[in-house]
Specification:
The protein has 580 residues and is an alpha/beta fold. Helices cover 27% and strands 25% of the residues. The protein has an 8-stranded parallel beta barrel, surrounded by 8 helices. β8 and β9 form a beta hairpin. The structure holds ligand 9MR.
């Protein structure tokens, strides 16, 4: 597959205009099967038998479905139910425009430059062909304003005005002007801009969610460039029996990540919770199996070596130790939590040892790049005692020569409590200490229930504030949200406090759009622009390639050469390019 080329010289930002639209699908074929048939009619409303509309694989992206329309002696219009079975007149009151994409095959171009016809009720309306479907072999989006229907039909009929022709159609929907986005358009996603900035924008997942054909799976890979297992790489999952490792869940995440060019972070190697029962009890200092300190250290070492080596080179960050601090700290020194078997049997040195073993295991496997983190919750604003405790412990480890790269602020928080300037103060402290500080498990709850202002404005401000941090602090390359939608959160009140970036039915929330816009603002400042995924901007002509310091790498080469360059910035044919 052709690699993506990021061009700095074309800045085409249509996002702001599009992002305001609320999308209501008429048909996106995600509940269809190949071979499903739709009825077709002529312009007078008589059903046609010499035309067909059959669900098939998308000719440009065979993992999704679309409708293949073939017409005979008359132009044919495919009938779809209006969403919610509402009538044409209600459609007009509720929605402003209709959008769909057409694909005319190169093997039969009769349908090119034909009017797009929409029959909503008794009247039909057409789109000017000149600005419509004028190129074969690619998907062409079309949009038009609704405004002519007068009758009350509960269906809409759509098609290109062509006889003896064929075309494909997909993503048929009405638009209003509330909020929403088009996840099939990469330029409307946070991932598009985070990729350009080299930042990690992640989400926690379970292997069962990673289905390419589901809206969930698509929402994950189209919008995020990093994943972390919500539970898949915890000790009870990876070593359910002593020295009996099970990597199946984590491996499933890695294979999805590889397919969609995403990074994976690892969570977590050593935690007092979700430990397998052969060791002892989660959230408890008890030692029911009577392990000696030496035995438990050996168990921890064997676990860390087994897991880190298995994933070496595939995981970019590990939460080595999770939640080892007690709640309610004063800010002087640090206090470790007591309900942990690691702490009660081994003592504080379990932390030092865990980091040392993680580093050694990775290095022995040739993975010198994986970053090692100390992760905790309620460690956001510098004013919090636990934040200072995290700082004190991380600095103590670093000063002892323990290989720690930084701290993870989980960021399970609330709109009304999350204090961005306080978090900035913490970032400054960690920066001065030479430690990374990343955002690992973000969810930002509203009041219960969330207010309209929170939903539309302040939640987005808090999320965008974190984007601001990751874009402006080098010590902060990662932000990960803890769940995909308000329907997939561990929080018991999520249905009403709505802490995440997508609604339960996977529509983008205003907070998501705020995140996109903030990433976009920084990408624009950095001078990166349009993604080219399938076309060389210089056509087939040969170009010279220089590295960013001006040294010539190659003369007279074509797109294939550029596709195979290592990731990085280049000057190609006189233009700045980011090759990914
Ligand atoms: O979201 C996770 C949930 O599915 C598990 O049931 C729970 C078990 O302890 O862990 C949740 O994730 C936690 C994460 O691993 C560490 N920080 C707090 C997260 C939310 O509880």
């Amino acid at each position: 597959m052709r690699k993506l080329l990021l061009l700095s010289f074309v800045i085409l930002f249509t996002l702001a205009a599009i992002a305001k639209d609320k999308i209501v699908y008429i048909e996106k074929f995600d509940n269809s099967s190949v071979g499903d048939v739709f009825k077709v009619f002529d312009i007078e409303g008589d059903e046609l038998t010499d035309a067909s509309a059959v669900v098939e694989a998308d000719p440009a992206s065979p993992s999704s479905l679309c409708l293949h329309v073939k017409t005979g002696s008359k132009a044919a219009f495919v009938e779809f139910q209006n969403p919610g079975n509402i009538s044409g007149s209600t459609v007009l009151k509720t929605y402003e425009r209709i959008y769909m994409q057409f694909y005319v095959p190169e093997s039969n171009t009769a349908a090119l430059n034909r009017n797009v016809v929409v029959i909503l009720g008794a009247n039909s309306q057409t789109v000017n062909a000149a600005s419509g479907v004028n190129e074969a072999g690619k998907w062409i989006p079309t949009t038009q304003t609704l405004g002519k229907a007068s009758s009350i039909r509960k269906t809409v009929r759509i098609g290109l005005n062509v006889k003896e022709g064929e075309y494909y159609v997909k993503l048929i929907r009405y638009l209003t002007t509330d909020f929403g986005y088009d996840y099939n358009d990469p330029t409307q996603t946070a991932r598009y801009y985070a990729d350009q900035l080299g930042l990690n924008f992640g989400v926690c997942v379970s292997p069962g969610q990673l289905n390419d054909n589901s809206r969930m799976g698509q929402t994950i890979w189209r919008n995020f460039n990093m994943m972390v297992g919500e539970n898949a790489m915890k000790m009870d999952a990876t070593e359910p029996n002593q020295n009996g490792f099970n990597f199946s869940q984590g491996d499933a995440i890695l294979s999805f990540a590889e397919k969609h060019d995403m990074k994976v972070r690892g969570h977590t190697l050593c935690w007092h919770s979700q430990i397998p029962s052969w060791i002892g009890n989660s959230n408890s200092a008890d030692n029911p199996k009577g392990w000696t300190k030496k035995q438990l250290l050996d168990i921890l070492k064997n676990h860390i070596y087994g897991v880190v080596k298995h994933y070496a080179g595939k995981i970019v960050e590990w939460d080595v130790v999770n939640e080892c601090l007690a709640d309610g700290q004063s800010g002087n020194g640090y206090v470790l939590r007591s309900n942990s078997i690691w702490r009660s049997v081994i003592g504080e040195e379990f932390i030092d040892s865990a980091f040392v073993w993680a580093r050694r295991a990775a290095d022995e496997a040739g993975d010198y790049d994986v970053k090692l983190y100390l992760n905790d919750y309620s460690v956001d604003a510098w004013s919090g005692g636990k934040t200072k405790a995290l700082y004190n412990l991380a600095v103590r480890l670093k000063n002892s020569g323990v290989p720690i790269d930084g701290v993870g602020m989980q960021t399970h928080t609330q709109i009304n409590n999350y204090n961005l300037s306080g978090v900035k103060e913490s970032l400054e402290k960690f920066k001065a200490a030479g430690l990374n500080c990343i955002f690992t498990e973000i969810d930002i709850e509203g009041s219960n229930p969330i207010s309209t202002t929170q939903l539309k404005t302040t939640q987005g401000e808090k999320y965008a504030g974190i984007v601001d941090f990751v874009c402006s602090y080098e010590i902060s390359p990662t932000m990960v949200v803890w769940g995909i939608s308000d329907g997939n959160s561990w929080l018991s009140n999520a249905a009403t406090t709505k802490p995440l970036l997508f609604t339960a039915d996977m529509e983008a929330k205003p907070a998501y759009l705020a995140v996109v816009n903030k990433f976009k603002e920084y990408a624009e400042k950095a001078g990166v622009g349009q993604v080219y995924s399938d076309e060389s901007p210089w056509g087939e002509s040969a170009v010279d390639v220089y590295n960013i310091t001006g040294q010539k790498i190659a003369s007279g080469v074509t797109i294939d050469f550029i596709d195979n360059l290592p990731e990085g910035l280049y000057i190609v044919g006189g233009r700045k390019l980011y090759v990914k």
